[in-house]
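User: Can you model how zinc ion sits in this protein?
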Amino acid sequence: MNFFDFLFPKLCVGCGKWGSYFCSKCVADISQGDLVCPNCERAAIGGVTHPLCRSKWKLDGLWSLGVYRDPLRKAIQKLKYRYVSELADVLVDLMISYWAKYTPQFIEELKKGGEWVIVPVPLHQKRKNYRGFNQSELIGQMLSRKLGLEYSEVLKRILSTKPQVGLKSWERKKNIHGAFSLTVDGSLSAMSILLIDDVWTTGSTLKECAYVLKRGGAQKVWAITLAR
Ligand SMILES: [Zn+2]
Ligand SMILES: [Zn+2]
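Assistant: Here's the modeled complex, given as structure tokens:
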């Protein structure tokens, strides 16, 4: 046991077993559930937005690693409040292996690179200072390194909104409206974006970000989250 292990003992976030931050048994317990269309939240193959649900300013798809329940829920909570890059690493590897296994055409398209850019959902600076980091940036940066895709923080949070927790769907939508803007002048045209966040709850934050990105000229915006 080295000094680092002594300071931060490697205990599984799911079951508490010693040896790794997320043991293989708990990883196997993540339930992916059905992928859904981001607009009507009904089942959709690969998470691609249904043709009838498509619209110019809306998300083109939603992909989540799993359903928001334990052990994935515990892992995400851990990630939010303490920087555990090794845990993020396990989750990001898992995302990539799921893509390779279940949606190989998706990872093929990403690997062609080209116009795909990874963009994290930003926290307001005040909140980021308080937490010390933004877990969506951490995941986005890891995905970008592992997939060889460009990473860009083109969104910024201009309003410090109330936490969305406990608000109804319409309240969330109202609360988040106008909270984001672009950090870059000019157009995002020719960009297809993987928009990264930790959890999809009602989707109001990711939908608002997609709207801002598309108004800025983005061609396609996919929401990618750890849980839904
Ligand atoms: Zn475990
Ligand atoms: Zn739909």
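A couple of observations from the model: Strands lie at 61-66, 116-120, 150-151, 155-157, 180-182, 192-199, 220-227. The first strand starts at residue 61 and ends at 66.
User: Helpful, thanks.
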